Amino acid sequence: MKETPISTIERNFVTQAVKHNLRLDGRKNDEFRKITINFGADWGSALVALGETKVLAQVSCELGVPKATRPNEGIIHINVELGQMAAPHFESGRNSELNVQICRTLERTFKDSRCVDLESLCVTTEERVWMLRIDLNVLNHEGNLIDCCSVAALSALLHFKRPDVSIIDNDVHIHSPAEKEPIPMVLHHYPVCASYCLFDDGRLAIADPSVLEERVADSALVFGLNSFRELCCLNLGGTTLTSSNLLLQCATRAARRAKFVVDYVKEVLELDKLAREEDRNSGFTECVRLNKITALAENRLSLRLRNFKLQGTDDLKDETAMETSGDEEVESEEEDGTEKPQKIVSIDSKSAILESNQSNIKWVPDDDGVESNIESICSENVTEEGDESERSLSQQIEKQMQKHSKKESKRALSKKHLHDDAGSDSEEEAKVIL
Amino acid sequence: MTEIVLPGDRISAAEELAKLKKVILGPGLRRENEQVVVCKAGRLNYKEPNAYWIDSYQQRYVPVRGDAVIGVVTAKAGDIFRVDIGAHEQASLSYLAFESATKKNRPDVNPGDVLYGRLIVASRDLEPELVCVNSIGKKGKLGVLTDGFVMNCSLNLARMILRENCPLLRSLTKEMPYEIAVGLNGRIWLKAKSLRETIALGNAILAAENASNEEMSKICENIGNILFT
């Protein structure tokens, strides 16, 4: 089936509305949609909903032969499935442009930033390593697939545990979970993506675009960031000119968003762990029973005023609360977590109208598609504190912009400071106060 | 009295009535020899004196002759326009099917335009065909729609708004002035004084989908309060 064509009046309406600081679904320009994460009964399966966009992620592993160039490192493969279930105009089985773009962005965010400790996946050098496969199945497409996929991939990776192995007489024996406790993944840092769409010749940015906004926008801007404000991936596609000022402000906001999302993922993981320790039922069936997974994540109105509340929503919530009398604690905690984004956003009442007042800004034209992808892995020293880290982020981006204008090599090789283990995360985060 | 029916059910009341006079079968009902069989799940409706039909929730539009629909022009192909009306196939619209259009005086319609037209051909084997004039060659309320916004909704909502006894639009007029065109293909064109009012209007209409008549006026008041405070 063909995608429904977009009419001129819709296009005009959306661009006009964005210019007047209005969004069709009542969000503020820099407001993201609500994110919910549910874990399956198996290790490494997660269902993530960003508004109505839904992605199901499953991590699996098998033993394989490593690459000759990297004999002691495991292999990660990311696969994104865009079927007709996501949107009727997607064709499954054929690699569309969007599919490749999402896949590549995720690869840059997760593989090229070296967030997974690949050496820990090695069983015997040059012979056997674990090959991880992250399958992302898009269940519903309502805009901003990249963000949703990245969160799904991250939470599935963090949730995943691989079976333990022992080598007896050059023979690898894989232990079942009953024999030996499965081993969790080692992640050095937790990257997620945050997308923006640019309007009005690159003078306005809106966060977390819906389908209509995505299609109308001049260009899309995707940041891959981890909770330490390090840039893992930056993708700028489209045709508009972008001021460096706007780019920096978006990056700062995206970093804040990344930190929030990562904190939320950790929180949900913690809850899941708790539930498993207490031998409570977990998994999707339980979520469905508790009304946590529903066909529509929220009472959705495609057009919506900011303060509008659909009557009866409150009653519905009460009902679900009553049904889940056994898990009241978990429920309430979860709700707290989901409320957070609104709080964070409301603190910052300034919306994302970011006019560039500098006339001498060097505009970076997006002349050709290949070069428009500013591609880089950047990780500077992260032990810096507060404002310094902010400056380092801006340096990273400026560096990339220069690189781009000079059309030099695509990879910026910068100092790498990778953490030895994920355990030091909490310490580091305490230092980097945003 | 409403009755829920499932595909395969027989409507004996209609069969009985058919013995006395002509019976009209609406959407969801089919005649097989002397039997009236349901082919869609939903609520059975009856209207005096002789009409039966089934109300069901549906998003996909199936063209029906005589329906007023909203479409998006996708291409100009020779002397016809291709119009997307959300059906299985694009509809065609002749350039002569506009008021006072002649071979020399072509209407100004471009790809991307939204228009309000009426279906004159809708058969399962033929391409649907639209016109933008009524039977006496006047445009009436049909034609190209400018400005405003087009939103999608379920077919039921579109039908509900157009029902004579629906209080929704009447109570909305108390809150703000607006223009509206409702296509039976589940598309609604809205235009109010400002962008915010247009969004408010759409919000009220979408929120009224499952509301009773009293709730509708409450929603409209609520929208008015949010809009002008």
Automatic annotation (TrEMBL), chain A:
<keyword id="KW-0698">rRNA processing</keyword>
<protein>
    <recommendedName>
        <fullName>Exosome complex component RRP45</fullName>
    </recommendedName>
</protein>
<feature type="compositionally biased region" description="Acidic residues">
    <location>
        <begin position="325"/>
        <end position="337"/>
    </location>
</feature>
<keyword id="KW-0963">Cytoplasm</keyword>
<dbReference type="GO" id="GO:0034473">
    <property type="term" value="P:U1 snRNA 3'-end processing"/>
</dbReference>
<dbReference type="GO" id="GO:0071035">
    <property type="term" value="P:nuclear polyadenylation-dependent rRNA catabolic process"/>
</dbReference>
<dbReference type="GO" id="GO:0005730">
    <property type="term" value="C:nucleolus"/>
</dbReference>
<dbReference type="InterPro" id="IPR027408">
    <property type="entry name" value="PNPase/RNase_PH_dom_sf"/>
</dbReference>
<comment type="similarity">
    <text>Belongs to the RNase PH family.</text>
</comment>
<dbReference type="GO" id="GO:0000176">
    <property type="term" value="C:nuclear exosome (RNase complex)"/>
</dbReference>
<dbReference type="GO" id="GO:0071038">
    <property type="term" value="P:TRAMP-dependent tRNA surveillance pathway"/>
</dbReference>
<dbReference type="InterPro" id="IPR020568">
    <property type="entry name" value="Ribosomal_Su5_D2-typ_SF"/>
</dbReference>
<dbReference type="GO" id="GO:0035925">
    <property type="term" value="F:mRNA 3'-UTR AU-rich region binding"/>
</dbReference>
<dbReference type="InterPro" id="IPR015847">
    <property type="entry name" value="ExoRNase_PH_dom2"/>
</dbReference>
<feature type="region of interest" description="Disordered">
    <location>
        <begin position="316"/>
        <end position="343"/>
    </location>
</feature>
<dbReference type="GO" id="GO:0016075">
    <property type="term" value="P:rRNA catabolic process"/>
</dbReference>
<dbReference type="Pfam" id="PF01138">
    <property type="entry name" value="RNase_PH"/>
</dbReference>
<feature type="region of interest" description="Disordered">
    <location>
        <begin position="357"/>
        <end position="434"/>
    </location>
</feature>
<feature type="domain" description="Exoribonuclease phosphorolytic">
    <location>
        <begin position="189"/>
        <end position="253"/>
    </location>
</feature>
<dbReference type="InterPro" id="IPR033100">
    <property type="entry name" value="Rrp45"/>
</dbReference>
<dbReference type="InterPro" id="IPR036345">
    <property type="entry name" value="ExoRNase_PH_dom2_sf"/>
</dbReference>
<feature type="domain" description="Exoribonuclease phosphorolytic">
    <location>
        <begin position="31"/>
        <end position="163"/>
    </location>
</feature>
From TrEMBL, chain B:
<dbReference type="GO" id="GO:0071038">
    <property type="term" value="P:TRAMP-dependent tRNA surveillance pathway"/>
</dbReference>
<dbReference type="Pfam" id="PF21262">
    <property type="entry name" value="RRP40_S1"/>
</dbReference>
<dbReference type="GO" id="GO:0003723">
    <property type="term" value="F:RNA binding"/>
</dbReference>
<comment type="similarity">
    <text>Belongs to the RRP40 family.</text>
</comment>
<dbReference type="GO" id="GO:0034475">
    <property type="term" value="P:U4 snRNA 3'-end processing"/>
</dbReference>
<dbReference type="GO" id="GO:0071034">
    <property type="term" value="P:CUT catabolic process"/>
</dbReference>
<keyword id="KW-0698">rRNA processing</keyword>
<feature type="domain" description="Exosome complex exonuclease Rrp40 N-terminal">
    <location>
        <begin position="23"/>
        <end position="60"/>
    </location>
</feature>
<keyword id="KW-0694">RNA-binding</keyword>
<protein>
    <recommendedName>
        <fullName>Exosome complex component RRP40</fullName>
    </recommendedName>
</protein>
<dbReference type="GO" id="GO:0000467">
    <property type="term" value="P:exonucleolytic trimming to generate mature 3'-end of 5.8S rRNA from tricistronic rRNA transcript (SSU-rRNA, 5.8S rRNA, LSU-rRNA)"/>
</dbReference>
<dbReference type="Pfam" id="PF18311">
    <property type="entry name" value="Rrp40_N"/>
</dbReference>
<dbReference type="InterPro" id="IPR041054">
    <property type="entry name" value="Rrp40_N_euk"/>
</dbReference>
<dbReference type="InterPro" id="IPR049469">
    <property type="entry name" value="RRP40_KH-I"/>
</dbReference>
<dbReference type="GO" id="GO:0000176">
    <property type="term" value="C:nuclear exosome (RNase complex)"/>
</dbReference>
<keyword id="KW-0271">Exosome</keyword>
<dbReference type="GO" id="GO:0000177">
    <property type="term" value="C:cytoplasmic exosome (RNase complex)"/>
</dbReference>
<keyword id="KW-0539">Nucleus</keyword>
<dbReference type="GO" id="GO:0005730">
    <property type="term" value="C:nucleolus"/>
</dbReference>
<keyword id="KW-0963">Cytoplasm</keyword>
<dbReference type="Pfam" id="PF15985">
    <property type="entry name" value="KH_6"/>
</dbReference>
<dbReference type="InterPro" id="IPR036612">
    <property type="entry name" value="KH_dom_type_1_sf"/>
</dbReference>
